[in-house]
Amino acid sequence: MKTKELVLAMFCALAPVACSAQKNASLQSNSGASANTATQEPAPEVTLECRKNVSLFYEAAKNKQFAEALAPWEAAYAECPNASKNIYIKGVDIIEWQIANAKSEQEKNELRQKLMKLYDDRIRWFGNDAKTPTPYILGDKALDYIKYFPEDILKEQAYEWLKQSVNGMGAKSKIMVLTNLVVVSQGLYKENPAHAEQFIADYQLASDYLSQQAADTKNKNQAAAQQQKDYIDNLFAVSGAADCGKLDELYAKTVNDNLENKDMLAKIIALYRRVRCTESEVYFLAAENAHRLEPTAETAAGCAAMSAKRGNIELAIDYYNQAFELAQTADDKADYLYNNAVYSLNLKKLQDARSYARRSLEQKADQGRCYIIIGMAYGQAKPFDNDYLNQTVFWAAVDKFQQAKRVDATVAETANDLIKSYSQHFVSLDVLQDLRGKVFDANASDGDSYHIGGWINETTTIRTRK
Asked: Which helix (H) or strand (E) holds 461?
């Protein structure tokens, strides 16, 4: 048997399905035919030689043997670019290997241009692929452009590809495509402040899609999505575009022009809440009209903030209760209940303040701020007729401040200040000794357990003022 025939026989043994389709040397690729329909261009014939080259480079590239993969890949790419998506998927790996081993800047530049063309050719022949259509490919192209063209500071071309990718893929966009959309858009905003509104829109879109991915328990990249969402949230917060005054400049007219457009109002309300600009008159107007059109947690929260600013705290509490009932996430529910705890404390409704804080903790247990509220409510309480008994509530208050910093290090400084302040109100050792057998047990001492009655109803520890 001749050498050429032997190679062909070996290839057919490895790929019987391909070879059984036709026995002559010219085979039409199903993938190529589909791409041909998409491009309206004649598709090259996919010969047995082409298929052999695809098989050879694929196996080598899969094993990271790029030197061995290079020649058959180049042959397949040149002769039958419509034969397989692997020409492009593995082609990226091969060109990246070539770039890493380039001997000169000229060679490196030629290779990175070749990489960009590779993506264009993939779109040409496989742009209609159901799983990885043109928008998906553009996302990958943009990421590689950002990686290999560092001298292009603004990366406006990559930005256009990223936008097309996210608009096409939606919530199925790659995590890093979403992140880089915001990163590049921020760079354009720094260069040109007129880009502010578009930057904000890009951030909102990416943040919403990352939130969806982070909330999907079936998503294997759930943690990564949350990590990148936190990253772009921080990026946006320090960008300058999140300034409340700037937002008002950008959105005042938009709100006034869209008082009957609940979808537009909802987006603006969500943005203002995200950057904590909830005391803006623009935010109030959007929330009030959105709540009129279709009550949601966001609109109720907006009306609550508006009512509080205008001095109607009772109405604010009512709106936050509505927001709690309408909220979809535990974090939002916790926030709304915490706000009501703060308002109730300000109104001296101490039992209500504790109740709201406890309910907030049921939604999210690591909130030191809620324990701070409970401790402050205890510190203001005078549930007994006896002044010395009323001093016992400071023990319970300090317990809550200590618990606050145990569960949440971010409130440690506040908790320590409150502990120092409230500890000055403990009974002195002399008073404790004088009150043994009268107010306290006959043998009451520092460190003993003590139950505070009334609505406080807490078991604490006796501590005397030093």
From this structure: strand 458-461
